[in-house]
């Protein structure tokens, strides 16, 4: 059943069928219909098949003078390993606003990594009656952005090793002559990108012939310290055997072996750049200034020093355009970027949010999800993403489940793949009440940014009214603007109408300034400590390695960047087993790294896996193509 | 200027500007216009932006009863390292047929590898006034097919190492129980793909519980011999440091290290499968039966044994649809697949050719290019591609240049990047005449397939009339149907009108049967020897390793496959320095490998590089994005 605006309301079935069956039961609208609802003219998007379109950045120029809609960020309490339905709630809320409350709305979601789809976890398009469709296209390839990131990341990696190799076999003069070869008229010239390095070196000469031998050496010899290289190769596949490898063992590489490894593609700094950039010109600069390691003298070496910043931008030129898709109820979705939520900031892209805010216009809503719990996702949304975008949300949603709250209240461990303890399947109000300390701290922290906080209780069929009342009372006591029960997984947008109404009221009721947790112009350590305090820590301790890195980044002039903590999502603290709202602990910083192009310093609190593996029986055993219909089967 | 059919004729400038400047000087037609000219309805293609569309395989079902057009294959004489303009001639011929001779025509081209675009070679979209546009989209990403191949190839690679790892740490029973876990009702079942392995093992039972312990072991333990693994990882980047690597050095991999390496993506067997498949169902089977190595008992292990054939097909489901683009003069082009021309067969896809033949219909023309010289490209086109497609060409074009013929006649070595010797820039009819032995052998070999041979002399500005007459005389003496001069590089389609007329006549003048060089049901060695004879060899010699491999493949039941010689393109013989038409040599077979899914055995005549490198100053130094216009600059 379609309304005049093209959206549809779902007929739901109980019990809720499998995600793929729900997704396949709905014939998506042609994406040009979705675009039309947003007043997007065909010259503002490129179709990618019938159900996806890339929205072109040019729409931002055209709508520059239009007003933004309301901006809503969805975070969550500290989750169980099963996830508490943050994406599903994000989608359900938008289905409610668009299909039931007749508001213009755009959902902004991260693009999921393709690798894990074939491993354990399955897809990431929401679930039940709150999903993005077609779910196979959402989970696989999409419009090629992650493939572009893989290609760009690995071109830079190849450029690093090859440069070291060529520098090792050539004199300064030979190297320089190869870098600036004579043209047909016998004249040498610098290519445009070389002027970036010349400028960095303080050389203002414009003719290769004019450089002194010392300048030739400084210019041509990057002198990269192989031990300092932080740039790794990437692949969008769960390939654990690439975590640590030795490269360069072929005979032509003359013994120049080096230990390195692969990360999964979404862990690439280029993904973080894509998520944080604001324009093509800005992306060009960020890609060019990505630091891959140091020279032996300790100077940071960038992609532009290697001459490859322009080529990386060319590879990423289409990836900067967000992909338009739709929910089950025909509301528009912009899928764009999917950076890690630990070593990166875990939020979808600034450009998608900016475009969406213009497209929905005043009184419209843009709902964007922040990865992990609010201690990480929302914190980084505010202090990193909003700092670079200059946008501010009016409302923050915090998704909670009775299951996770019981865990925080002292319930038994929740383990993926194992049956839930009976504590989670039967009423236990005391456990819930005890667990609300976790929710309360997330509310208080989030409210401190100056936004209205709405708590969304994502209801499961086993949850009781008494349990839910306990959560609502605790939420209001902690300062929430509102707290509501949602059943969007079972009922689609209809199940999130109360949430939609609460979010509307929260947005309309104030126009607060965004108060950052820390200013940028304090030291790296002071920034780390401000964030640690928000976790409940009483202090921070640094390893020698972390101290050394902080000193180096400060010396290199990078201390003014925001901080992106790489911490477990399963606790406010560094210890995943500490549930609830731990306090008084000392947060240990093992190491400190930087994504200079993306624009943040990331302290490592513990060890982060950046390359997942495959289990004995990966998901792919179920996945196949029905070759008669062309439909994907077995994707979950 | 557009004709009624939507094609345009070019206004040309002399001297010929840079390729990118010509490409950027023409505003392409919207690809839906090109599709309309081919009577493709919008439900038969998916747009990918404004200038690319994927033509859906469903069009083949719809047009099943239509007649095919003429089928023309373009090969070349043995080339210099500079290339003799085979792609350019293919495009120019089509521009002549479509824009000047008013015939329905489709050009079928290979998708170029993206990696080399940033290395030395630049793009592959033709040149001068005979190009495919937009050339940046042609050379980069296109519609993601190579990225899909990379993802699928590497998922299979990850599945191999992970399976060996999990088998090494688990008992037969634990392994089996993990592969067939109990569902919610506690019941174990086989997934569909497991029945393929059960069938291979001759086990007809359908319930996991019914297997004997010995059957459990046979089923669950692939027992892959790590030393037998031929499946390598791939990347579409020139990364020489990945040629030989050691994987598995992370602590979690418990010392299970292994030496392996990366090839460039187009060297993946999956690319060869894409090029040779005829339908979704056929692709599913080919991907599933790809052999990755042997069990310790010597049994071939396939992708389906690993449970991943279905997932590979899902990753490749859009890649099977060819991409529609256009030439500078607005004639349609199908770009699809780009397998290596040595370790694979070097031809664009069967499905693109099949679709094109239906779309142009009777009296229309499909012109498809075969990689390398005709000794390799055309031979494989006939004996591998046409054997699987059941199509046969009416005409074969052989592209020759005065430059290459002079080289074959004894001219000095031609080296890329070095100035040409004066012999190549001044008239020397004797050198040309002497070199025509190379052309003559290609004509004789090609004619033996039962097709009419048209020689196209790709004229350079320094070539003289006497030189060209020498070639035409030699061509006719060797049995060519016709020989004509072309200037499509300088003049677009107008410069290839004579060639177009000759090709039309050649196609109309006969309806020959295709005579293969060898039948499939003789031994591997007899097939190798038949091909070697066509090179001029008087015999073949095999290393011990080659003998061993031939014996193994024969024992495994693969001796009925066609042969795909991996030989240098720079000579008829194995020695690149032997120009002209060498004879009486013994062809050495160093090793023999197989692409069982793609469907061929490939003997290695010498060493083939499957991963290019980057020079000291790669092309990427010139490549950048004009961020104001979004245009790519510096791509060559």
Automatic annotation (TrEMBL), chains A, B:
One record GO biological process: folic acid metabolic process
Known catalytic reactions: (6S)-5,6,7,8-tetrahydrofolate + formate + ATP = (6R)-10-formyltetrahydrofolate + ADP + phosphate
UniProt enzyme class: ligase
InterPro entries: Formate_THF_ligase, Formate_THF_ligase_CS, P-loop_NTPase
Domain of life the protein comes from: Eukaryota
Cellular component aspect of the GO annotation: cytosol
The enzyme's E.C. designation: 6.3.4.3
GO molecular function: ATP binding; formate-tetrahydrofolate ligase activity; methenyltetrahydrofolate cyclohydrolase activity; methylenetetrahydrofolate dehydrogenase (NADP+) activity
Pfam family, one: FTHFS
Pathway: One-carbon metabolism; tetrahydrofolate interconversion
UniProt entry keywords in alphabetical sequence: ATP-binding, Ligase, Nucleotide-binding, One-carbon metabolism
Xref: HAMAP family: FTHFS
Complex formation: Homodimer.
Family: Belongs to the formate--tetrahydrofolate ligase family.
Protein name: Formate--tetrahydrofolate ligase
């Amino acid at each position: 059943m379609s309304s005049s605006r093209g959206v549809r309301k779902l007929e739901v079935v109980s019990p809720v069928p499998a995600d793929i069956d729900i997704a396949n039961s709905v014939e998506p609208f042609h994406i040009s219909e979705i675009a039309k609802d947003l007043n997007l003219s065909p010259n503002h998007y490129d179709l990618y098949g019938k159900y996806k379109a890339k929205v072109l950045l040019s729409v931002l120029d055209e709508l520059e003078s239009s007003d933004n809609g309301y901006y809503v960020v969805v975070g969550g309490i500290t989750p169980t390993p099963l996830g508490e339905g943050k994406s599903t709630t994000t989608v359900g809320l938008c289905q409610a606003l668009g299909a039931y409350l007749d508001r213009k709305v755009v959902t902004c979601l991260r693009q999921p990594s393709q690798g894990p789809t074939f491993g354990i976890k399955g897809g990431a398009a929401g679930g039940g009656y709150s999903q993005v469709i077609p779910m196979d296209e959402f989970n696989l390839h999409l419009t090629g952005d992650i493939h572009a990131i893989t290609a760009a990341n690995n071109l830079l990696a190849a450029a690093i090793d090859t440069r070291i190799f060529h520098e090792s076999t050539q004199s300064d003069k030979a190297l320089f002559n190869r870098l600036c070869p004579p043209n047909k008229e016998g004249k040498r010239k610098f290519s445009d990108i070389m002027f970036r390095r010349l400028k960095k070196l303080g050389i203002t000469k414009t003719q290769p012939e004019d450089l002194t031998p010392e300048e030739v050496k400084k210019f041509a010899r990057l002198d990269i310290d192989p031990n300092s290289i932080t740039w790794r190769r990437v692949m969008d596949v769960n390939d654990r055997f690439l975590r640590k490898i030795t490269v360069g063992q072929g005979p032509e590489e003359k013994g120049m072996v080096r230990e390195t490894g692969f990360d999964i593609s979404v862990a690439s700094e280029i993904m973080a750049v894509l998520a944080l950039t604001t324009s093509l010109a800005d992306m060009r600069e960020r890609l060019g200034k990505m630091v891959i390691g140091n020279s032996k003298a300790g100077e940071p070496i960038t992609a532009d020093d290697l001459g490859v910043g322009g080529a990386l931008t060319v590879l990423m030129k289409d990836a900067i355009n967000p992909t338009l898709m739709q929910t089950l109820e025909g509301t528009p979705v912009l899928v764009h970027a999917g950076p890690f939520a630990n070593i990166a900031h875990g939020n979808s892209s600034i450009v998608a949010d900016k475009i969406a805010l213009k497209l929905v216009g005043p009184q419209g809503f843009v709902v964007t999800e922040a990865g992990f719990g609010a201690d990480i996702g929302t914190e980084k949304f505010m202090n990193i993403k909003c700092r670079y975008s200059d946008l501010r949300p009016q409302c923050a949603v915090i998704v909670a489940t009775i299951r996770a709250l019981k865990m925080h209240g002292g319930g038994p461990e929740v383990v993926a793949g194992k049956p839930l303890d009976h504590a989670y399947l039967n009423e236990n109000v005391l456990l819930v009440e005890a667990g609300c300390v976790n929710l309360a701290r997330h509310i208080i922290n989030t409210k401190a940014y100056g936004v209205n906080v709405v708590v969304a209780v994502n209801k499961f069929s086993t949850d009781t009214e008494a349990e839910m009342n306990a959560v609502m009372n605790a939420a209001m006591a902690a300062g929430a603007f509102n707290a509501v029960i949602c059943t969007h997984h079972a009922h689609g947008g209809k199940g999130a109408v109360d949430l939609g109404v609460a979010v509307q009221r929260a947005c309309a009721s104030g126009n607060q300034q965004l108060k950052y947790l820390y200013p940028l112009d304090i030291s790296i350590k002071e920034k780390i400590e401000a964030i640690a305090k928000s976790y409940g820590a009483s202090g921070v301790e640094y390893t020698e390695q972390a101290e050394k890195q902080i000193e180096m980044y400060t010396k290199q002039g990078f201390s003014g960047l925001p901080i992106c903590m790489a911490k477990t999502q399963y606790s406010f603290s560094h210890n995943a087993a500490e549930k609830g709202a731990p306090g008084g602990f000392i947060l240990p910083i093992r190491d400190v790294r930087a994504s200079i192009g993306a624009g943040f310093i990331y302290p490592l609190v513990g060890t982060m896996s950046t390359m997942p593996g495959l289990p004995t029986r990966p998901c792919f055993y179920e996945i196949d193509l029905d070759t008669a219909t062309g439909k994907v089967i077995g994707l979950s």
